[in-house]
Each structure stands twice: as C-alpha cells, then as structure tokens.
Amino acid sequence: MSTTAGSDPPPTTQAEAGSTGLGRAVVAAVVGTVIEWYDYALYGAAAGVVIGPLFFPDVVSSAAALAAFATFAVGFVVRPLGGVVIGHIGDRFGRKPAMILSIVLMGGATVAIGLLPTASTIGVWAAILLVLFRCVQGFGAGAELAGAMTLVAEYAPPARRGFFTSLVLSAPPAGIVLATGAFFAAASLPEGALLSWAWRLPFLVSAALFLVALYIRNRLNETPEYRRAAERAAERAEREKLPLVELFRTSSRHVLLGFLSITGHNALNYIMAAFAIAFMTSDSVGMSRPAALLAVTIGSIFGVVTTPLGGMASDRFGAGRVLAAGSLAGAVFAYPLFMALRSGSVVNATIAIAIGYAAVIACTSGSQGAFLVELFPTKARFSGIAVARELNGALVAGLTPLIALALIQAAGGQIYLAAGYLAVCCLLSAGAVLTAQRWGAAPAAEVAQ
User: Fold this and answer.
1) Is 16 exposed, middle or buried (0-12, 13-18, 19+ CB in 10 A)?
2) How many CA atoms lie within 13 A of 394 on its CB side?
3) Diameter of the chain by CA atoms?
4) Per residue in 280-289, pLDDT tens?
5) Distance, CA of 362 to CA of 271 (rounded, Å)
C-alpha cells in the first residue's frame, strides 16, 4: 500500500499481525458480513413474497410489489448516513467500537421486523414501523462491510490482501444462501401458515447469529496499522478530529471512483439476490416460490466457493485488472441472465445465477476489497470505503430491484430495458476502474503525492 508521506504508518507485516490476530479478524469480519447479507437478502426474499400482502394489503398486486421493493430501497437510502457516522467512529475512535455498534443495530432491527404486527393488526402503523426498522437496519449496515474489509486488510500481509479480503467478500453470497434457504423452508409450508407465522421465523433466527458475532467482536483488538496511525494522529489532533473532512480534502476523486467501481457489482448482485425471486414468481413468469428460492440458493453457493479464487487472482494479476474484467463480463452477461430468469425454467435460472456468481461476482467481489483499501490512506480508510460503498448502495443497490421491475413494466413485460440498465452499470464500473488504475498506476499513489 502507498502511504501519505509523514502521515500514514507503514503497512502491517505478517509477523506483526500474527496468525491469531489475523484469524480472529477474519472470523469477526466474515460472521458480521454474513449477518448483514442474511438480513438484506432475507428482506429481499420476503419483499418478493410476503411483505406486499401483509403490510400493503389494500393495493393491487403490482403496486404492492412496488411498495414492498420501495421499503427494501429505504434501508439503502440511510446506509450512507450510517457509513458517515459509524465510519467516523471507526477512523476516530477505533475499528472495534464501530463494528460492535454496526452489528447491534443490524441484529436488533432484523429481530424487530420478525416481531412486527402486520397491517391486519395495527393498520398503517405496520408499514410505518417497517420503514423505521428498515432505516435502523440500514444505518447499522452502512459501515459493516467497509469496516470488515478495513479490519482484515490492516491485519493481512499487503501481498495477500486480495485473498484475505475476498474471504470477507465471499460472506455476502453465504448470507444470501442462508437467507434464501431459510425462506425456502418457510415458503414450502401452506400459504396460510407462511402468511400467519412462518415468515417470521427466518427473521428471529438471526438473533443467534447476532449474539455469536457480538461475542467475537468483543474479543477483538485494534489493528496494528490503526494503532500506529492513531499515535501519529495524536500529534496533530486538530487535523484528525474529522476524518470525513480529511477524506474529501485529499481523496474526493477516489470516493467518486470507488463509488463507480462497484456499480455493476451491486446492480448484478441485487438483481440475482432480491429482484430475481419477485420476477420469477410474478404472473408473467409463473414460477413457484419454492422453485425460485431454490434457484437463488443453489446459484448463490457458487459465489461462496469462487470468490476466494477471485481474491487470489487479484493478488496475482492486480485487483484493478480483475475488477475491470469482472465488470465487463457482467455487461456481456446482462441480457442472457434476464432471458434465463424470464424462461420460467428453474434449471435455466439456477444455471444463470450460478454463472453470474462464479464468473462475474467472484471477480468483482474477490478484487474489490483490495482495490478499495488501496484507494484510501489509513487515517480516512474506514470513512472512504463506507462513503463510496454506501452512496452506491443507496443510489444503485437498493434501487436496482425497483428500477428493474419498473423498466420491465414500462416495456410491457419485455426485458431489454432492464438488461440494458444492468449492462450500463457494469460498463461504468469497468471505466472507473481503468481510470483509477491510470493504466497501471496504483490509485493510492495519487494520495501519497
């Protein structure tokens, strides 16, 4: 990693971090990221199946689906605020307190949604409280993955940052697998049981994951790299009190490039994890709920297995090259993916989602940790990654299921507009990565000058 002269400490060495510290950091980061994506994929699955009829029962089915995905998007709208606030805590007071706060907010909100009365019991207040808990959930998640990547990267040897951060980034599809698997089991029950009580169980199960993650994070130590940076920051505290100000003073271009670099990744990920279930179970496609959930669950497993391979490739060939290649592959894959989802065949859908994760998401997930970490100096890294990722989450990830559904409806059921949207997102990412790389120059080098 390139560092700012006189400000950033040298990178952590393997001996300094130690296998125990690195291993504990990886476990803490992976478990928390699994919970984040379990929560979000679970709500995405529920949005496509039960949120509409339970919380918006007085509107027609198509409008209820839009309303359900609008509440899905709400959680992403507040993520940038959570990223700014919790990212500031992480850069100013330490990685550990920030990551504990993040997991408490996420876990508590998910359990609260599982306990929430529906519209048949409390009327419009059900939708209001649902939006409130989605906001709390999104606020906590706003810094979760940024903190996880930062924590692991600052313990890992620089030459293997791609691999170790890819272990964190293999956790999102793992969370998706757990969430869709849990909801698959609930949706396999008769519809009356699903809508009355069974939909709550996957939300309440997250309490166990939350307690495990909280226990692990309470045992964390600060990273050696952060401790050294904090010692130097104490000598000029007047400049370091607001890491966000320092971030935009020195690295505003890198925030923009970081935002654009993951646009294609987020659009594809949320089309496969959240939109696909609602689309495949719609009247126009007609797939059963269990079949759609099974397709997403099986397909997502490929992301868990192949993302570390993308991380190893980024260590060997460069994170920017792998991220750009994955983004370009996503653009090519956009139309075939939508064709497979529209086919009504569970086999076609499963194969397409598996290819999406194994050939595209493995590259974009496996490389983005190392790529984003190298964009920002230690003193503003947590904030930089959080702001770039969560602004993208609000404007791209959270809105993508809603946008894709609206584009298909606007095209009279045709998929070309939605596929074009995905392809454009992927091309934007490829262009941003190539710009950041400056044809081989490390992005962080600009910060160091």
Assistant:
1) middle
2) 17
3) 65
4) 988 889 898 8
5) 16
